[in-house]
Amino acid sequence: MTANENRYARQQVLPEIGKEGQERLAGSTVLILGYGALGCVHGELLARTGVGRIRLVDRDLVELTNLHRQIAFDENDALSLTPKVEAAERRLRAINSTIAIEAHALDVTPRNLEPLLDSVDVVLDATDNFETRYLLNDASVKLEKPWIYGGVIGTEGVTMPILPGKGPCLRCLIPAAPMPGSVPTCDTSGVLNAAVAVIASWQVTAALRLLVGSPPPEVRLTALDPWNGACNSFKVDRAAACPCCWQGKFEFLDAKRTTWTTVLCGRNAVQVTPPQAVTLDARALTERLGRVGRVTRGGLLLRFQTGDVEMAIFPDGRAIIMGTTDEAKARTLYAKYLGT
Hints:
alpha/beta; eight-stranded mixed β-sheet
């Protein structure tokens, strides 16, 4: 028995997987979109399962408020404001050195999502907003890439596989995003870490079924509440009037030249993403900003502070403006110091 066969022996003996299924997993690529609470569980399970390539995408930094539910991170990551994908890559490589880990510190936009789906077999949704999910839904339907929807608030969570061409898409289930302020958030309702683990495990199981060639017989939305011991499942059909999977209109994906500003959940900060893809010259920017404030570089990040202005700047030109929730002010500060 080889080292890898020994590693996966308790899994390979499962008739649902077997040797052939294990080989399929080793040849597969999975994209984890978002690396917060759900994504941390996704990554751990996939790495231990032996999926050959795991692509991680997240825009954010580790903070202390993450630690009660984001199991990939520790206090050192939070105190140093480490990019989540950087900490995650380090942890997953320590778990399984035989697989490939790709870490992308990116904010997902209409400009960059399609390349991220290249060669991917399935996508796991670990995002925290409907705008990104609808964007993923557009791209997945267009490129015929299956993905597994999931979300958790409070003690409850929901999940559903999206199989383009074979079943309903997200907009069949939820035609339009809820109005701002109309639904609970992690800040207003909290989140139970055990509920996160349950939904994430359910998502990973659905992904593994697809990867080993054993897809579910029908698409069902599953709602789980581990605190109250509740589990409900509903069959979902395609909507004849769906603008995405029925009419082929990719309204979110086609918005390719948008400057995105996002007030970050639970933080006194605004993220600004430039209207065009860029690759920053970190050395030149460090020199320029160093003339007006303090600049530190570490890992994937450049941090800049002057007066009451603090910015975390990423290689793709994206910046998190800390100390404000005013999007207009954040845009102004971005333009003032980064010149775009």
